[in-house]
Write a structure and sequence with these properties.
By secondary structure, the chain is an alpha+beta fold. It has three helices and three strands; from the N terminus they run H-E-E-E-H-H. The chain is 47% helix and 13% strand. Bound molecules: zinc ion (ZN).
Length: 91
């Protein structure tokens, strides 16, 4: 019984531990079935959002849409400036 492959299956406790260690969000659901099962999380801003654990891990979807957009917006600004500089240099 001790041959459980690490990473293949998560227990609920492991999921909660991961969420607490890697995000400022809180898992609201009291059960965990599969990595692709959508679960409810409480964002640090107080907003409730739903995401499956697979996306939580691999796509960094670790906050509500509002906070996520804020984050992405900052990245976009940076990228746009980069492109502007690039175009200026070309002209
Ligand atoms: Zn939020």
């Amino acid at each position: 019984m001790s041959e459980r492959k690490k990473g293949s299956k998560w227990t609920y406790d492991e999921v909660v531990e991961y969420v607490n260690a890697n995000s400022s969000s809180t898992l609201l659901d009291g059960e965990f079935f599969k990595k692709i099962t959508p679960m409810r999380f409480l964002c640090s801003c107080g907003e409730i959002f739903i995401v499956d654990f697979h996306r939580f891990c691999s796509e960094n979807k670790r906050q509500c849409n509002k906070c996520g957009r804020k984050k992405t917006g900052e990245q976009c600004k940076l990228t746009n400036k980069h492109i502007d500089d690039f175009l200026k240099e070309k002209n």
